[in-house]
Structure formats: C-alpha cells, structure tokens
Amino acid sequence: MSYMTDYKRARGLGSAHEGTHHFWIQRVTAVALIPLGLLFIWPFAAALGEGAEAAQAIYRNGWNAFIAINFFVLTFWHLKLGVQVVIEDYVHGKGRRLRFLLANMYFCWGMGLAAVMAVVKIWLGA
Amino acid sequence: MADVEQGSRPLSPHLQVYKLGLTMIVSGLHRITGVGMIVSAILIVWWFIALAVSPDYFAKVDWLLTTWIGLLVMIGSLWAFFHHLMNGIRHLFWDKGYFLDIPAVEKGARIVLFGAPVLMVLSVILIAII
Predict the structure, then answer these.
(1) Of the four listed, A77, A82, B69, B104, which is most buried by Cβ atoms within 10 Å?
(2) pLDDT digits over B67-76, tens only?
(3) What are the tens digits of pLDDT across the range B81-101?
C-alpha cells in the first residue's frame, strides 16, 4: 500500500482540459429538456395506440418532428452524462469501468441516431 | 480520480449507518428514475423505428406498448419523468445557491415526493380526455 497523496500522483500530468464541462452540459441539457420533455409527451401520448396512420399524421407535422428530434438528441446526451456519473460511482477497476463507460457512450449515440433517423423518415414520409 | 489505491483503503461509514431520511429517498429516486427511464426510452425509440419501417411492424410495437404491462411502464415512466424533472429543478436552484437550508431542503423533498404522483395522475387524466 502506497501512501502517496492524490496531489503527488497528479502532479506533472497536466490538466485534463475538461474542467466543469460535464457539469455545465448536464445543466444546459437539463434546462432544455424541461420544455422539450413536456412538448414531446403530448403528441406522443396522442399517437400511442392509435394506429400507424394517426401516428404518421402527427409526426409528418414539422413542429412535432422538430420537437421529437430535439428531445431525443438532448435526452440521450443528458442520459450519457448521467449514466457516466453512476458508472463512475459504482463500477470499480480501471478496465471494467472503461468498458462500461464505452458501452454507455455507444448505447446513447446509437439510440440517439436511430431515433433521429426514424423521425426524419416519418416526417418526410419516405 | 486516483484509482491506484482502489480496494486497499478502509471505507468510511456508508449508507447503512444512517437512518433513512426523506431527502435521501428523494435523492435516491432521482438517480433511480433517471436510470430507469432507459427502459421507456428504448421502447419509445423502438416505437418510432417501427413506424419508420412498416405499418405492419408498427402495429405490433404499438400494440405491445398499449397492453396493460406496456401502459404500466408508460404511466410509471410518467411518474419517473415528473419526479426527475421536479427534483432536477431543485438541483438547478441549489446550483444558484437557493433553498440550501435544512427546512427548505425538507420542504422541497416533500413537494417532489408528493407532487410527482399528482402530476402523473393529472397528465394521465388529461391524456385520456384528449
């Protein structure tokens, strides 16, 4: 067991150049998601269980598609940041933690992109 | 953070030594609701992908999400959404330095804990009417 202090270990390695970036983006996305979440829920709830034609009609509307795309991008960005903190709290061991962090990023990017592609396709009626 | 010494240091007293308090419950639920909404996020994205793919495939997913278990997940997520949203607003106020004294923190926790189910019920009624 080494008694080296955190300061001694970190000294000379330089800054991570991240600073408060994670904290700040978490808040920026959080504020945007307050209206976006509410604006997303209503058309979605109206479309749920009403069949393909009704759902397509709702999301061919540019405003609803715009809200949905915004909502998905910011939701998965916010989710990535939040789950990252949870992983950093509970998943130990350098390799294991890295694998979880990578899985989190790929999941959130994949889900976000898939959602955006789907909404664009529905919106354009392609 | 320093990963070098992980596992070999003594741990300080953790959750089990504290009496479970209201603020702890609300704080824990913030994280649980945040992570838990991954389930509804997957279902909702799946629903959109299905709509983009074909009407037949969409009919299956749309049906699944409106079965009683599907609706249970959706309505449960509505509660999770409101809990996370209300508690998130609390966090934003704390970041600005407001409501950090004990009575305000307790009051805020109570508002979130009881407010979220109320908003859930109200929105379900509203959705049902429209």
Answers:
(1) A82
(2) 999 999 999 9
(3) 999 999 999 999 999 999 999
Q: How many CB atoms lie within 10 A of CB A47?
A: 21
Quick one: three-class SS letters along A33-91? HHHHHHHHHHHHHHHCCCCHHHHHHHHCCHHHHHHHHHHHHHHHHHHHHHHHHHHHHHC
- What is the phi-psi region of residue A11: left when phi exceeds 0, alpha when psi lies from -120 to 50, beta otherwise? beta
Q: Could you give the ipTM of this predicted complex?
A: 0.89
Q: Enumerate the residues of chain A whose CB falls inside 8 A of the CB of residue B3.
A: 94
> Is A82's Cβ below 8 Å from some Cβ in B?
yes
Residue A37 resides in a domain: yes
The Cα-based distances of B128 to A9, A35, A46, A47 in angstroms read 59, 21, 9, 12
Contact A10 B2 (CB under 8 A): yes
Using an 8 Å Cβ cutoff, are B116 and B83 in contact? yes
A67: CATH: 1.20.1300.10
Domain limits, chain B: 23-129
- Taking one residue from A and the other from B, the number of pairs with CB-CB distance under 8 angstroms is 94
Instruction: Give me the pLDDT at residue B11, please.
Output: 72
Q: How far apart are CA A65 and CA A122, in angstroms?
A: 8
Q: Which of A59, A75, A93 sits opposite B41 (nearest CB)?
A: A75
For domain B23-129, the question of CATH label 1.20.1300.10 is answered with: yes
Residue B34 in tokens: 């945040």
Side-chain half-sphere CA neighbours of A38 within 13 A? 12
CA proximity to B112, closest of B79, B80, B78, B87: B87
Q: A52-77 burial, b if ≥16 CB within 10 A, otherwise e? A: beebbebbeeeebbebbbbbbbbbbb
